[in-house]
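User: Sequence recovery, please. Input:
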């Protein structure tokens, strides 16, 4: 499995048989900039460009989530770019996250929350 944002994008782009130049054009950046991103010499782009990448590579939701997580790990703040807006617009989410931090919630605790939410129907 890809372990960096640049490698992930490079692999997905090549799987889609899109040249670096063509893909850079599709997402509105310079080929040299895309090359630097794929090589890990530049930070991942902003959310708008990430969404264009996902759209143009026809990524599954699972791959989109992976891309966001890899983009976060390649940046200083380390938060996946699809999460801050939701967290900041949902007061109880912030309360839950702070409580989880305070109580030292483990992955097992979060798994229970995931299972609870997964049972929910919209």
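Assistant: Recovered sequence (122 residues):
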């Amino acid at each position: 499995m890809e372990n960096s944002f640049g490698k992930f994008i490079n692999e997905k782009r090549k799987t889609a048989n899109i040249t670096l130049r063509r893909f850079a054009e599709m997402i509105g950046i310079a080929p040299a900039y895309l090359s630097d991103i794929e090589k890990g010499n530049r930070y991942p782009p902003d959310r708008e460009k990430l969404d264009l990448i996902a759209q143009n590579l026809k990524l599954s939701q699972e791959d989109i989530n992976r891309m966001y997580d890899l983009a976060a790990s390649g940046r200083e703040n380390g938060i996946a770019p699809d999460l801050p807006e939701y967290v900041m617009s949902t007061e109880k989410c912030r309360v839950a996250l702070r409580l989880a931090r305070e109580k030292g919630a483990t992955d097992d605790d979060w798994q229970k929350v995931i299972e609870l939410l997964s049972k929910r129907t919209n």
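The two ends are 32 Å apart (CA to CA).
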